[in-house]
Each structure stands twice: as structure tokens, then as C-alpha cells.
């Protein structure tokens, strides 16, 4: 228990440092969608898959480097960057830096190749990329969804970045389900019954666990793909921040793992 508390403190300090970075820089993302691209979005293609995103790649790389150093400093993440990893990042030439951040902003980027080039795991590179772009993508998401019929999105993946959901919540009197993407902090409506990871609608293979002393939490389990999805019932506890809830519910991850399930987004809790 003491080890878990220590890891939580490190993670908290890591995110506090990132908040300070957010106050220093302001990475802005821009995109211009044609009518045809908006139609393609309606067919299930996420915004980042439709058109190139314009942004200051130099500022993005500076933030990536700062995130990597913070990760090393607080010894958090799926793997801690070494001094050599930081040096390898700093030694990249300008065109490599640009290629790297342009790859990392996309869910379908060449991350496996870049991980090999930098000598780090794909899990660590994913962790760094998410924390590099999350603030800018959150602002971008809030803006771009005002220009799209967001209520019509019925896909299981994020309408903005295309990533898989990290958590979900039940809200409103009817307990409507909303999925949550931790990469850009987008929330979107999704059908109440069905696994968002394997798309199975086989009700007998799905059920959920609850905690006696925390009835606002549910862990939905899918026997078809052996994935789980942490869910918060806002009808019980009121409105919540799902980013914070994910960090605060490691016990739920542990319970699901002990039952033989894995996170549907394939990431570690960090």
C-alpha cells in the first residue's frame, strides 16, 4: 500500500509540473475542413485523420522534451526515460524533430519506428505524446466540435483524435453513457449496451462489478475480448472530471486485472 501511495505522489508531482508548463506555452492547433471532409467525418473518420493539422512544431518539440524530463525527474510512466534517451531527443536534427511531433500527434503515426530510433518502448512514447499534446488537443476539440454535428457521432473511437476511450460515465436522469478519450479529453455519447473495444453486443458476455463502499464506480467487463472499462455513475456522485477519476481509481484497475481482464485502451493506468 505504501508503494502505491508513493507512486501516486510521484504521478501527482509529475502532473503539477505539466500544469506549470501549460502556463508557460500555448500550443495552438488549426485545421480547415472541406465539406467533403466533413461528410467523411460523418462516416466515421476522426478529425485528425481527415486533414493535416497546423501547429508550431518547434514549440511542440520543446514541450515533448520538457515532458520527457519531467517523466525522468519524477520516475513515472510505463518506463522512465534515461539520460541517454533525453540526449537522443536533444540531438535530433530540425527535420527529425518536425517529423517526430507530426507523427506523435496522430493516433496512427509511425510510433513503433520512432520508438526503435529513440531506444524507448512504444508505451513510453505513447505516454509522452499524450501528455505533450493533451492541453492543445483539448482546446482544439472544444473548438472543432462546435463546427460539426457532434451529437450524430455513433462510433466507439474518439470523433476528434480517433483514439480508443479510456473511461466512461453515466449521466442525466436516464443514465446515458458517454465515452471519454484521455488523449484530447473529448466526451461523446455511445450506446448503453455493447463493448466499445470489440464492438460486441452479446449481452450474456458482458457484466459489471461495483464496490460496496463506492457505488458510483462500475467496472464493465467483456468476456468476448477480455477488456474492461471503468465507469463513473454521475447520478450517484454528481459531475466528475474523468481524467482525475482515472488517476484516482487504481484499485478498480487492480480488481479487473485480478479477474483476468485488461484495460481496453491497452495502456497502463499512468
TrEMBL record:
Entry keywords, A to Z: Cytoplasm
BP terms from Gene Ontology: protein maturation
A single GO molecular function term of this UniProt record: ferric iron binding
FdhE C-terminal domain boundaries: 194-264
Domain FdhE central, chain residue ranges per copy: 157-192
An annotated GO cellular component: cytosol
Pfam families according to UniProt: FdhE_C, FdhE_central
UniProt-recorded name of the protein: Formate dehydrogenase accessory protein FdhE
Amino acid at each position: 500500500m505504501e508503494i502505491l501511495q508513493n507512486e501516486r505522489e510521484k504521478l501527482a508531482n509529475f502532473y503539477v509540473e505539466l500544469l506549470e508548463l501549460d502556463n508557460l506555452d500555448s500550443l495552438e492547433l488549426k485545421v480547415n475542413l472541406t465539406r467533403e471532409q466533413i461528410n467523411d467525418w460523418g462516416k466515421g473518420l476522426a478529425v485528425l485523420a481527415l486533414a493535416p493539422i497546423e501547429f508550431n512544431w518547434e514549440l511542440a518539440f520543446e514541450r515533448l522534451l520538457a515532458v520527457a524530463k519531467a517523466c525522468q525527474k519524477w520516475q513515472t510512466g510505463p518506463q522512465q526515460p534515461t539520460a541517454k534517451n533525453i540526449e537522443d531527443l536533444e540531438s535530433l536534427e530540425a527535420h527529425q524533430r518536425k517529423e517526430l511531433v507530426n507523427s506523435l500527434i496522430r493516433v496512427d503515426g509511425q510510433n513503433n519506428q520512432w520508438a526503435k530510433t529513440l531506444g524507448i518502448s512504444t508505451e513510453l512514447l505513447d505516454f509522452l505524446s499524450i501528455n505533450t499534446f493533451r492541453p492543445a488537443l483539448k482546446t482544439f476539440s472544444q473548438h472543432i466540435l462546435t463546427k460539426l454535428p457532434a451529437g450524430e457521432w455513433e462510433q466507439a473511437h474518439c470523433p476528434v483524435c480517433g483514439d480508443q476511450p479510456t473511461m466512461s460515465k453515466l449521466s442525466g436522469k436516464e443514465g446515458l453513457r458517454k465515452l471519454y478519450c484521455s488523449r484530447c479529453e473529448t466526451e461523446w455519447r455511445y450506446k448503453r449496451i455493447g463493448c466499445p473495444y470489440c464492438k460486441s453486443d452479446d449481452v450474456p458476455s458482458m457484466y459489471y462489478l461495483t464496490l460496496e463502499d463506492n457505488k458510483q464506480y462500475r467496472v464493465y467487463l467483456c468476456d468476448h475480448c477480455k477488456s474492461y472499462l471503468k465507469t463513473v455513475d454521475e447520478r450517484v456522485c454528481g459531475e466528475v472530471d474523468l481524467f482525475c477519476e482515472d488517476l484516482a481509481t487504481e484499485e478498480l484497475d487492480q480488481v479487473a486485472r485480478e479477474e483476468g481482464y485488461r484495460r481496453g485502451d491497452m495502456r497502463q493506468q499512468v
